[in-house]
Amino acid sequence: MKQALIDKYGRQLNYLRLSVTDRCNLRCYYCMPEEGMHFAQRKDLLNFEEMYMLTAVFCSLGVSKIRITGGEPFVRNGIMPFLENISTLEGLEEITITTNATLTGKYIQQLKAAGIRKINVSLDSLDRQRFYQITRRDSFDAVYNTVFALLNEGFEVKLNCVLSAAKNVNDIIPFIELTKAHPLSVRFLEEMPFNGSAAFDDINWNYKDIYNHISQHYDEVITLENSPTSTSLNYAIPGYKGTFGIIPSFSRTFCGTCNRIRLSATGELRTCLYGAPAANLRDVLRNGADEAAIREMILLAVSNRLKDGFAAERVNTKTVHDSMSVLGG
């Protein structure tokens, strides 16, 4: 019988979030500091051959969905041949990508050819000036135009908007109005402490605040059925083509059904975003471990997985969380 990644709480992990780089061409305030980031040296990154081998092992353990993350995935040279290669892995049913969409446009046809149809775009404002304040870069037009180029080519597009009371609450309703005429899914996320600094005291706009704000602007908000492992609470406005969701990423209300496992660009394996690495697969791979040994390490990590993000955070000894670009999201 094929082995599966099942933790001691009976949750099967069939969804791998794979970071292919820690580098990014934006500097979003909630992800990394504007200056002073120490990116991994090239020799410390998993190369594509190593990533392919590890991805194959995960698929042999029941992983059927992979999300490619970063940093920004498309800043890494050679990303498309890698995506094309893993798209043929046995058992892999879906590859999705999270991107800031500044560089994605030129790859649209290649993505289609590789069978990739779902793209999440990080977009935190529909206002050019606020976009600049959040990302510290003037790339709004490239991102916005790519969103609609993807829609025109038949991609399923989700927009991920990280919310802060001091930054972009005024963007919530414009984002929802964007779903009136377009089949977009907008996801509003609570801010998290993964900005690579100590500049995070507590959440200032939680999932309840977000919903209350929206419900005050519309006569009716339809609650949609969520999949068993969904991280988002999903809704729609009657007559609108698209949908919106709210992700309690800091409140962590979804931990009980989490089916995710994470591999960073430097090989760190995490069973929870809020926890410490369970192992570094790059190191053991370069020290000569074979696929069977790698498989056992992954199974051991999953067997020791904690109940939720709060428990994982309590035993994580770091006083300052890593940057999200280092963790891979």
TrEMBL record:
Enzyme Commission number(s) of this protein: 4.1.99.22
Cofactor(s), by name: [4Fe-4S] cluster
Enzyme class: lyase
Keywords, ordered alphabetically: 4Fe-4S, GTP-binding, Iron, Iron-sulfur, Lyase, Metal-binding, Molybdenum cofactor biosynthesis, Nucleotide-binding, S-adenosyl-L-methionine
InterPro entries named among the record's database cross-references: Aldolase_TIM, Elp3/MiaA/NifB-like_rSAM, MoaA, MoaA-like, MoaA_NifB_PqqE_Fe-S-bd_CS, MoaA_twitch, MoCo_biosynth_MoaA/MoaC, rSAM
Domain Radical SAM core, first and last residues per copy: 8-241
Classification via SMART domains: Elp3
Catalyzed reactions per annotation: GTP + AH2 + S-adenosyl-L-methionine = (8S)-3',8-cyclo-7,8-dihydroguanosine 5'-triphosphate + 5'-deoxyadenosine + L-methionine + A + H(+)
Entry's Gene Ontology molecular function annotations: 4 iron, 4 sulfur cluster binding; cyclic pyranopterin monophosphate synthase activity; GTP 3',8'-cyclase activity; GTP binding; metal ion binding
Record GO biological process: Mo-molybdopterin cofactor biosynthetic process
Top-level taxon: Bacteria
Designated name of the protein: GTP 3',8-cyclase
UniProt gene name: moaA
